[in-house]
């Protein structure tokens, strides 16, 4: 299953061995699931570096070129028909290399809830793609998802726009996974990674957080239903 997944996302068939990967959050027992978990956030380009000898796709050639071309990367970032995660990588590259980027273009939402058996994570992207990691470490991937899943994924992203418009980017290293009893909502935005976190019961009553949690729960029900058919 993991080889198929790695082929889908275009990163080869081996785990990253960089120092960054070794220091990344590891909430699961399985190293391969921790790897996939960290891919969700698109905040470490090295995790996406191709590990096989297959020909590079266009965005890999652009982002991993010996001398990357800024305008080519900007075109990838601004292409609304491009995969959302690839756009996030391109925006991140531009920011890291001190190039201007537009503010508050929301491209993904990740909701994390620690449970008794581990961490439940649902990630939805603006293009309708979805990733779900169950507390046991089981994985569901939706590329070209069923219409109802894709529609709900886009609704989850839309539900987070009011929060993104009220807060700002996190300017430090991404935190370890949230503690039990909390819920964390991470927003992948053109100008950085935004997030909000707090006790689950409290966040369910918070005006900006409640719609996100509600829509994430609805998406999760759809994902589990489709995945178990």
Question: What distinguishing features does this structure have?
Answer:
229 residues, alpha+beta, 2 domains, six-stranded antiparallel β-sheet, 6 strands, globular
How many domains? The number is 2
The first-to-last residue Cα distance is 17 Å
Q: Classify the secondary structure makeup into a structural class.
A: alpha+beta
* Strand segment count: 6
Report helical residue fraction: 40-55%
Largest sheet at a glance? Answer: 6 strands, antiparallel
What is the overall silhouette?
globular
| Rg calc | 17 Å
Order of strands across the widest beta sheet? 4-3-2-1-5-6
Strand content range:
15-25%
What's the helix count?
A: 10
One letter per element, helices H and strands E, the order comes to: HHHHHHEEEEHHEEHH
Please tell me about this protein's structure:
With 229 residues, the chain is of the alpha+beta class. The protein has helices at residues 2-9, 19-23, 31-39, 58-63, 70-78, 84-96, 147-159, 161-166, 200-205, 209-227; strands spanning 106-115, 118-125, 130-133, 139-142, 182-189, 192-199. The protein folds into two domains: 2-96, no CATH class; 106-227. The protein has ten helices and six strands, in the order ααααααββββααββαα. Strands 4-3-2-1-5-6 form a six-stranded antiparallel β-sheet, sandwiched between helices. Helix 5 (70-78) crosses helix 6 and helix 7 (147-159) runs antiparallel to helix 10. The longest helix has 19 residues, at 209-227. The radius of gyration is 17 Å and the shape is globular.
